[in-house]
Amino acid sequence: MPKLTKELLDTYKTPASPETGYIKVGMNTCGISAGAQKIYDAFVHKVKEKNIPIEIKKCGCLGMCHAEPLIEVKIGGKPSVLYGRLDREKALSLLENKSLPEFLVEESPGQKKIVLRNCGVIDPERIEDYLEKQGYQAIKKSIFELGPEKTIEEIKKSGLRGRGGAGFPTWRKWKSTRESESSDDNHHGRFIICNGDEGDPGAYMDRSVLEGDPHSVIEGMMIAGYAIGSSTGYFYIRAEYPLAVERIRKAIAQCYRYGLLGKNILQSDFNFDLETRLGAGAFVCGEETALIASIEGRRGYPRPRPPYPSVKGLWGKPTAINNVETLANVPYIILNGGENYSRIGTGQSRGTKVFALTGKIMNSGLAEVPMGMTLREIIYKIGGGIANNKEFKAVQTGGPSGGIISKDHLDTPISYESLQELGSIMGSGGMIVMDEDDCAVDVAKFFMKFCFDESCGKCAPCRIGTAQALKILEKITGGNGRREDLDNLKRICHAMQKASLCGLGQTAPNPLLSSLRNFEDEYLEHIEDKICRAGRCRELMKRPE
Amino acid sequence: MNSYETLPDQLSTYVNKWKPKKGSLVMILHAVQDYYGFVPKEICFVLAKELKVPLARIYEVLTFYHYFRLELPAKYRIAVCMGTACYLKGAPDNLDAIKENLNIPEGRATEDGLFTLEIVRCYGCCGLAPVMSINGKIYGKLDKKKSLGILDEYRQKETDS
Amino acid sequence: MIHARINGIRVEVEEGTTVLDAAKKVNVKIPTLCKHPDLPPTAACGICMVQLKGTDKMIRSCCTEITEGMDIITLTPEIVEVRKTVLELILSNHPNACLTCARNQNCELQSLAAEFGIKEELFGKILKNLEIDDSIKTIVLEPQKCIKCGRCIQACQEMQNVWALSFAGRGLDTRIAPAADFTLVESPCVSCGQCAAYCPVGAIYVYDDTAKVWGALNDPSKHCVVQIAPAVRVAIGESFGMESGELKTGKLYTLLRRMGFQAVFDTNFGADVTIVEEATEFVKRLTKGGGVLPLISSCCPAWVDFMEKFHPDMIPNFSTCKSPHEILAALAKTYYALQLNIPPSSIFMVSIMPCIAKKFEIHRSREMFVSGYQDVNVSITTRELVRMIKQTGIDFSSLPDSEPDHMLADYSGGGTIFGVTGGVMEAALRSISSFLTGKPLGNIGLNDVRGLKGVKEARIKVGDYTLNVAVAHGLGNVEYVINKIRNAREKGEEPPYHFIEVMACPGGCIGGGGQPRNINDEVRRLRINGLYTDDSHCKYRDCHDNPQVKRLYAEFLGEYGSKKSYDILHTYYRHRKEYKSYRETEFLGESE
Ligand SMILES: Cc1cc2nc3c(=O)[nH]c(=O)nc-3n(C[C@H](O)[C@H](O)[C@H](O)COP(=O)(O)O)c2cc1C
Ligand code: SF4
Ligand code: SF4
Ligand code: SF4
Ligand code: SF4
Ligand code: SF4
Ligand code: SF4
Ligand code: SF4
Ligand code: SF4
Ligand code: FES
Ligand code: FES
Ligand code: FES
Fold first, then answer.
1. Which of A204, A432, A454 lies closest to B124 in CB terms?
2. Start-end of H helices in C93-232
3. SS3 for C35-91, per residue?
4. How far apart are CA A424 and CA A375, in angstroms?
5. Residue A529 gets which letter from DSSP?
6. CB of C508 closer than 8 Å to CB of C422
7. Which CATH architecture has domain C119-206?
8. Residue A125: strand pairing partners
9. For the whole model, what pTM was predicted?
């Protein structure tokens, strides 16, 4: 394999779509488990057997989980169409030019795809596909046109903030990492880590990107590494995502073969190595200092900040930690200019955000929307509203650190700030919709149980606070609640928020407090009338009709 | 029966590759678990020597991360997702049905040693909720009937072979 | 310098000072639980919360560096409520077992609960039954009382590099446990007791042997004798409100007699004998090729245990001399028994030590039974003695001084500085100098072996010889020295040192695991100064000048390093397994 040069890189152009057409099969974890592998294999077999002149391709997430398995079909000069909810036989009949209108699906309107620009478009296991989509042009631009400072400047102009939850301005993190003193100024002086731990249940944006477009994330890491002056990067990916790990590893190997990783990338003096490390079933390892401990081979215990990782991170060296989605934005921003990017979005929240829409929603799936879109638009326009003609009750954003938003706030345009004002957070992008059959107390208990199970146990407020809060919630849903319990809950929550060491414990009370604020009447019904109107809490009576 | 006094070749190669890297412990434990299906305590002695890492460190790490198992699981590992999306879409009912069907609580193996039952948090296939996996293969859009049907398929496979 | 405000009070501190220490400087007290002044913060408890003025953010004062212009508020009703709730949460996960607890009345959690005036239990108890581990009989682990402050782990893993303890599990299931869930006696624990010295609560404490002592004292058939280690005399006063480092030797003699001991000896005498033997051994190795160099000191049993487990290749380097209290006990049950004409079986020897490892040492090998009986019957710590004093009701501080029973008690300055890091080395060099050159050493170069630096190296001219010596204290500091020896050995080079002293506890025995608990470098320094003062006031400074030592050899042992000395005063080492797993037997064979 020849090492790529600047010039060779430019020879990759988007190919004209083949005359004869193609069929792409969505082959992410979820698609595969819905049957995509069988369909793909059948196509390949049939096309070969019958010598049909059509290309069969794999691609990543098409974003419409509700309609898996999904394929995209383009035949001759006709525009491409999407089919969903197929099985093997139905899919094969497409090759016989049968039309299957009942299986046609349409992509929901109003999305703006930057992070997901290649997902469902290219074959994630072929670097050539990525190269044809201007792949690795952004790192080339950084190295040969911008240099590190201007690269950071572009990110600053873009207004990009961390998509991992806290929304910290990415350029500030990079600048501070670049400027922090390191005890070692050669190869291992600074590090860039991609946080692919995605432990928030009900969120899978990062998995979809890692599986569907690994090279975008790798290129984002290279640019980040270049900008902060690092020559070593780590992917930290949760072990529960084997396909994501496999695809990232494959992509890294391809990069080494093409000379896009290693020494003297594109014949410049930029050297960069990448390695993957696996998580091992600890949500807290998404927290950056715990993640560092985990890479160092220790228990995933967070430590106090400051010092921040950008000053003292992996092995004591300045380290920038970025989320998968944050990094996937980077090549786009560098190529298209920060200013361009910053035109999307609202206020202090620029660009797009990917959400994983799940729960009682008609069309569950991934949606990338410009910041500033309202919750109502996302849930009703993109998500198709509530399934089974039920009534919308609430939406939970930000996972176990987030909050429950009631229907009174559906018209809030989403941004980091607005969600915070509602007592929730943007978080990583999980958006879980609840209907009238869901119980506010039960959901609060669910999240508290999650935090209790995932508390690392290092600090007392979280270790014992989650246990006591859970115990009280179990008492309430079990029909033994008393009014004082609510005061005790609030007291525990307050202490946890103020005195927990890391974000897990500090934010663990959020779902509980927000549900208490929005649905206090339901809590009182549980406690005083021993009624659960949703009928979820088995020890209680359902609301009399 | 396995003896755990030395590393098998495959692991030994892996350990030698990772040994020079800093902080390789978690990766090596993954390799051990991939090989044996769990992390035998005795292997930790060998690792401690090989890696020059105190046994206490290996054990404190091992017991921190819930992904690592200290006991050999049954032939089929059922992992029911109790992530948010699955929870709301009926995972608890499925779980109860499976527990009743297998007659075991979570964390245990059935008497015939065929199934172990675990709970996991989100496979990231929330769009297919509720979800479970058996030896890593993911099954989605479950209800009680479908879940029990899948168990029966595995039982069938067992009697067939 | 950093300028900041604490509750409006201006404070100027050095960069790197924590908010907690800055507050202390202006006499503002912030409650703490997991932080120990001597250890880096673990940030585990969340009791020390304070507020940044003008924000609603709270920070941990114990681990947050104060920065320029910071404005800290340490007391508002909200802060108190948060701290109190955290404390209540901790108590809800802790048994109410104070009355029967090893730490009753000197427990940091108990005091805090009292300070906060906790009157009711708002939250129900969440407790797990975790077994007590008293298998090692030196320290006891009671995991149920553990508050997960992490101090013992810092001590055992980082300070001592033993790795006998670790946390296991996670979240609420986190528990303190011997490595890999072995029992303590099967674990690599060397019984240095540093974990017990730092534990704020009754989760790790010293195995209590005081009942055995009371039993013997009340047994008319026993002739009870007692010895006091050097380090005890400069620390015990702290438990009675006196200054660290004040010498309490005379009071201790009086006290022990009043408690009913028939003869009061002093371990310092044993130390003098140790030095005479060790210096002889050294000179033999240096001049006659009688063994390998460097010679490594062996008077700290935790260090001996550590070496037998982790560095068995150093066995030939070890001095074979027993530790001072074993030497003294062996002499008490042979020489003293002969003099009194009583059978050694009737003598009951109690040694009062700063040390926890001694509880293990007294039966560690058959050489500890040279009289035919266990030479030291019971070894108790300074803290155990304090408890016994309190039980007797004797007012320690008002006791008059008295004299010991001179035969096995008179000591030289060299013997008393055994209790500090570098002291063994210094005492030995004094005698080595005399033995090699016939002239006393003076103080040349010895400042290099004094002080609290983890590893001290010095080059000392003695006659025609230039001796390279090293002193390490705190087992975590040993690795450096050992590796240097090993590297030289592998390369076939001359050994980098002639003589090495190691003490397991930071500061040496004055910082022993059985000493009063309020330890930090300041206290260590005061205790060290106390012993150097004792040294400077001694009539004889060199161990071999002690007339009682001379008499002992003249009447009983013959010459230094005689066959009889070897029979009674020396011991041997074996390679021990770090872990006694189910397959292993205890010893891997003997070596001498
Ligand atoms: C308990 C906890 C879990 C977290 N989990 C994740 C995660 O799974 N993925 C992630 O990207 N960030 C996670 N974060 C946030 C990270 O600590 C960190 O802020 C983020 O990776 C920074 O990247 P960004 O600036 O690109 O967002 C978590 C934080 C906490 C407190
Ligand atoms: S807040 Fe919870 S997860 Fe974070 S350090 Fe404390 S115990 Fe661990
Ligand atoms: S992966 Fe599925 S299955 Fe699990 S939480 Fe997400 S929705 Fe549930
Ligand atoms: S550890 Fe302290 S608080 Fe706990 S029982 Fe003992 S004395 Fe009481
Ligand atoms: S302090 Fe209270 S509980 Fe303890 S002994 Fe006294 S009265 Fe009893
Ligand atoms: S006594 Fe020493 S070696 Fe033993 S557990 Fe405690 S600190 Fe570790
Ligand atoms: S045993 Fe004691 S020192 Fe160790 S963590 Fe528990 S409370 Fe802290
Ligand atoms: S070694 Fe320590 S305890 Fe023993 S005699 Fe010397 S000072 Fe005392
Ligand atoms: S240094 Fe002294 S107190 Fe500490 S273990 Fe050694 S002999 Fe005992
Ligand atoms: S279909 Fe699997 S989550 Fe998208
Ligand atoms: S289509 Fe597979 S991730 Fe949704
Ligand atoms: S004293 Fe600061 S957190 Fe415990």
1. A204
2. 108-115, 151-153, 194-198, 210-217
3. CCCCCCCCCCCCCCEEEECCCCCEEECCCCECCCCCEEECCCHHHHHHHHHHHHHHH
4. 13
5. I
6. yes
7. 2-Layer Sandwich (3.30)
8. none
9. 0.94
CA–CA min distance C87, chain A (Å)? 9
Distances in whole angstroms, Cα of residue C131 to Cα of each of C128, C177, C203, C330: 10, 10, 11, 38
Q: Does C89 touch chain B (CB under 8 A)?
A: no
- Contact residues on chain B for A34, CB-CB shorter than 8 A: 128, 140-141
Which residue, A384, A74, A327, is CA-closest to A213? A327
* Cα–Cα distance for residue pair C318/C315, rounded to 1 Å: 5
Tell whether A184 and A327 lie within a shared domain. Answer: yes
The CATH number of the domain holding residue A93 is: 3.40.30.10
Contacts of A374 (CB under 8 A, 6+ apart): A410, A411, A412, A413, A414
- Please give the C-alpha separations between residue A84 and each of A67, A70, A361, B132, in angstroms, as whole numbers: 5, 4, 17, 22
pLDDT by position in tens, chain C (length 592): 999 999 999 999 999 999 999 999 999 999 999 999 999 999 999 999 999 999 999 999 999 999 999 999 999 999 999 999 999 999 999 999 999 999 999 999 999 999 999 999 999 999 999 999 999 999 999 999 999 999 999 999 999 999 999 999 999 999 999 999 999 999 999 999 999 999 999 999 999 999 999 999 999 999 999 999 999 999 999 999 999 999 999 999 999 999 999 999 999 999 999 999 999 999 999 998 778 999 999 999 999 999 999 999 999 999 999 999 999 999 999 999 999 999 999 999 999 999 999 999 999 999 999 999 999 999 999 999 999 999 999 999 999 999 999 889 999 999 999 999 999 999 999 999 999 998 888 765 578 899 999 999 999 989 889 999 999 999 999 999 999 999 999 999 999 999 999 999 999 999 999 999 989 999 999 999 999 999 999 999 999 999 999 999 999 999 999 999 999 999 999 999 888 754 444 434 443 3
Of the candidates C81, C123, C147, which has its C-beta nearest A488's C-beta? Answer: C123
Check whether A17 has a pLDDT greater than 70.
no
Contact B88 A434 (CB under 8 A): yes
As a whole number of angstroms, the distance between CA A131 and CA A218 comes to 13
Interchain contact, A457 vs C173, CB within 8 Å: yes
Q: How far apart are CA A343 and CA A22, in angstroms?
A: 35
Residues near C555 by beta carbon (within 8 Å), at least 6 away in sequence: C335
* Contacts A452 to C, Cβ<8 Å: 171-172
In Å, how far from its chain's centre is CA C235?
12
Given A30, A281, A454, which is nearest B128 (Cβ)? A30
How confident is the model at residue C443, as a pLDDT? 67
- Selected catalytic residue, list C281, C308, C326, C501: C281
Q: Which residues, other chains included, contact A147 with Cβ-Cβ below 8 Å and sequence gap of 6+?
A: none
How many domains, in total, are found in chain A? 4
Homologous superfamily (CATH) of B76-160 is Glutaredoxin (3.40.30.10)
Is there a contact between C216 and C350 (Cβ–Cβ < 8 Å)? yes
Distance CA C116, CA C110 (A): 10
Report the complex ipTM.
0.94
**Could you say which of 3.40.50.450, 3.40.50.1780, 1.20.120.530, 3.40.50.300 is the CATH number of the domain covering C211-569?**
3.40.50.1780
The number of residues in chain C equals: 592
Q: Rounded CA gap, B158 and B134, in Å?
A: 14
**Domain extent for A181:** 127-342
Question: What are C435's two structure tokens?
Answer: 């033995």
User: Which atom number of ligand 6 is nearest to the Cα of residue C188?
Assistant: 3
Category of B139 on φ-ψ map: left (φ > 0), alpha (ψ -120 to 50) or beta:
beta
Residues with Cβ within 6 A of ligand 10?
Answer: A 30, 65, 68, 204; B 125-128
